[in-house]
Write a structure and sequence with these properties.
By secondary structure, this protein is an all-alpha fold. The chain contains 5 helices and no strands.
Length: 117
């Protein structure tokens, strides 16, 4: 398996798990991440994250991790990391989201390393 396929698979699994979690069990999700007012919005974000995970995963299955997949992966991770940092700083969301920001930045760095190879 190529490095870009490993990174795509790791991100697909991470996004799949973190996206599906609030959809399947919002109570445990909120126990970890803090209370939420707009549950529908949390679940909507979860659906979008799962939707991103699917092409990341299928690109690995088909051995076809393209530039488009890499841009989707990097862009979504950068966006989620920015949201995490900004809204933790504004005290809108719990500090636990900074762990997600770290994971997202690690994914971006991994993609950039793979891209440069």
């Amino acid at each position: 398996m190529k490095l870009i396929e490993i990174i795509s698979l790791v991100q697909a699994i991470y996004f799949g798990l973190t996206g599906i979690w609030p959809i399947l069990h919002i109570r445990s999700f909120m126990a970890v991440t803090g209370p939420k007012i707009d549950i529908w919005l949390v679940k909507t974000v979860g659906v979008v994250i799962v939707a991103i995970a699917i092409p990341l995963f299928t690109s690995v299955v088909h051995h076809n991790v393209t530039i488009d997949i890499m841009l989707l992966a990097i862009g979504s991770s950068l966006g989620l990391a920015a949201i995490d940092v900004i809204y933790v700083a504004k005290k809108v969301i719990a500090k636990i989201y900074l762990l997600d920001a770290v994971a997202e930045v690690i994914l971006v760095l991994a993609w950039l390393v793979a891209w440069m190879r």
